[in-house]
User: Which sequence fits this backbone?
């Protein structure tokens, strides 16, 4: 039985009918990634919200930070694993594979990060990400202290929290709209 | 024992040392609200992320939408109730009181929305908000169908999902940074 | 939309038709509190059970104990927060505000006690109350030891357990009967 | 390894040092049951609270009600099963065996009531008891409607709620004080 | 109301129509136990699967192991308690009573093992069994270390894991087929 | 950081020191699969238990059944997804890819089966598998009725239950022993 090929449960605008700035983004995605991530197309239902989402995302995942891009992607996948978000696990699992050159690491982040061999810093980050996702009201000072004990400074704690928080947003948009990831992700960087 | 008066568990920059655009926002807040919401001051730890957060927030909560501002605030509070986020319950609980002129409604949204007298449309929105927050991986087509049956169209479903998703982000930032709300909220619109 | 003004999902007897001793209690409530708490009116469906409930309540919350009245009310609210009981959160949240003179403390107990500044003794009591409410079968000797380490003696442990247990009873009666609190509570002691 | 023979984790007063009315109760228990239930001895730590507990219990479990005594005991055991309360499962499991003359029924109530052959009325009562115990905040009008559809009237709903609520109290006292049931229960009515 | 006397929700073959080897097993059960355990009769729906189940069971529960037969039965009952499996609680609860000569110990294992007086080794085994049953994905090296600290060696850890795993299988077969235990178990070894 | 390359947290016997029948199995695996599944090597810690495990597995997953081999593997992966078992997700996820020729289907089963396009029969089977894994005590006659309504007969229900039960066993052995899957699985059938 063929798997679903919709992008969103809501209507998805034709790219040609979108504003020039968004078309330019799509074109840049095609050039750099070979695809336009379906999350962008699903969000283009409301172009201004797409712009805001991309601005936040770009700063968060691609901007300057003492968290490496790989670390940020690992956190993104662990949050998405806790929430069981298919879209983000597929798209960001591929990012972990690409950035780490380690296909197994991507699988571990998606399926159960506890089996991975991690540095104490990474493990502390991912434990914090899991807890802040699953039982946020139980996050208190000892949880921040555990991050500090693993070497994270204030700026790193801020950026970690921000990635966790953001993927709790984007996971829920993906569920609410039944977003399906681009099929290309599956075969990349295996 | 005096209650905590910190704004964040991380350092909070002096307003005077922030960029002019952010100082201008603070000033506008003082004029309109009589206070600078502590979430802004906590986020000013990373000024660019503050800007992105505000841009997204303003579109989401104050921009055009077929969801009324009160409905959006009700959703914000119900998400924060599910997550037990003190900051957002205090700040947005006040917003529900102010916009509805109904102090009890604010309390009901914060404590247990199921006791409130709600229209079928409102009840459907809040049930969706609760489920998307607490068990997002169980949100499927029947959940969207329930919204449609209650009269929501595609644009309203998008905006509803967006508010739910956003407060799942902001609740987690509040927990991660132990943000405390401005004390003024407590006494307003009772 | 006006909020619900019923007292109970079951019929509520007219005060004038109740026995004299209960009418006398109602009158005393009017004199002291300016209202007859709706929980009494809801329970008057079965007058003898109302009497037993009041006798237990009065000993528990107003009788001699090394737990202060404020401490007992804080515990009552934290139990009700764990259970999300609107009636008890509104009625006993007001009691915390009144006894502490601290409106924020009442909000913190109702919304998430972990954000409050508490003495180690108070924190230990509230942690015990939460656990005994949410996962009672996991309460074991180390939990009593934690209370003792925070300075509670046997009599205090007994009284603490008793308050936690009682509000697990009264929360459930409130849910089962859909009891609504007197509206006056909302505005008192803000 | 011999099993525990304590009555409570807190001190238990010598019967001879208790007030005459409580000694009289103990004597009556010996005459009728052949034992003094350990819950009474544990509660005698605070004699007035023992009196209030007994008064409430006697009305609830032994007083007039359209719920039969067996039905009330079945509800008591199902609540205690949800909470995994050893004391109440042993003591009230025996009561179900005695009142029903059906040892298996007692085991089913204690271990998993869903396997028992029950009338629709009984099943509705026990489903309500389970839900009000485990997820009280989700009890709403449809839950009361299900009871009514199974034939319960207002008075029966009140009494059912009261039994569920009371055992949520007594289970928690048993956990908090680590009460152990009298060994005699184990062998009775098998 | 008479309790259910079915063996399985699926058809149960007449013993006389089963292969000779299975009939021989039934006969041996009658001789040794005075009954044919209903789990065997339910499984005889698929004779080869019954054979495999018995082979695994016999090695696991009756074969050589440094875990005593009583310890294995205690683990079986605690797993079944976590899962609330009526069949296995009744059948293996009786086994604990028989092997220990302690009827209370059987009840404790079935209702809440935390109340029992246990050696540190037993407590560690049962804590591991509970966790591996309820939150298997959280079992990590510290959990094995706790077993080692309580004196278990590699072979004992293997056998413990195997018993826990097996009863997570058999509990689920019992639920899926609604298996009812032989009534004789209830009265044995009280 | 290189990922773990252990097979089990317990010692793993050298193949050359195992009995001839097990060595023959290993050789057959090498011929057919190009690898000896690590689960066999981990289980060879106790050779007789390995034999029993393989006998059960072969009947269950490879024997005659009206459930196709693909359906059985889909069930295996969904159970392992509910339990978050890395070993089984990797090994049986590959089996779904191989048997279906659909790499995305394997990912969907592992990450969140609810996003897949499934026949009503498949969806019913996977919903049953999830529920029997996560809340087995809530499986009752309506759950079997849903399978029958989707076209499953008694034999299919038996075999479905058996696969669900078995992977609840094998997932727990994998967690208890920290089994790591053969790395070859990751790259196969992408």
Assistant:
């Amino acid at each position: 039985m063929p798997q679903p090929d919709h992008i969103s449960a809501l209507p998805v605008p034709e790219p040609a009918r979108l504003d020039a700035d968004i078309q330019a983004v799509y074109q840049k995605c095609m050039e750099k990634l070979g695809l336009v991530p379906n999350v962008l197309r699903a969000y283009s239902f409301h172009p201004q919200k797409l712009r805001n989402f991309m601005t936040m995302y770009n700063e968060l995942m691609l901007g300057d930070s003492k968290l490496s891009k790989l670390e940020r992607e690992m956190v993104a996948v662990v949050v998405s694993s806790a929430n069981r978000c298919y879209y983000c696990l597929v798209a960001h699992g591929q990012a972990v594979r690409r950035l780490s050159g380690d296909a197994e690491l991507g699988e571990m982040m998606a399926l159960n990060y506890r089996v991975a061999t991690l540095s104490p810093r990474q493990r502390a980050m991912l434990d914090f990400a899991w807890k802040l996702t699953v039982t946020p009201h139980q996050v208190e000072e000892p949880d921040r202290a555990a991050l500090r004990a693993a070497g994270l400074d204030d700026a790193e704690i801020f950026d970690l929290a921000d990635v966790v928080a953001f993927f709790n947003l984007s996971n829920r948009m993906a569920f609410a709209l039944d977003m399906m990831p681009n099929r290309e992700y599956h075969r990349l960087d295996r």
Remarks:
- The CA atoms of residues 4 and 119 of chain A lie 38 Å apart.
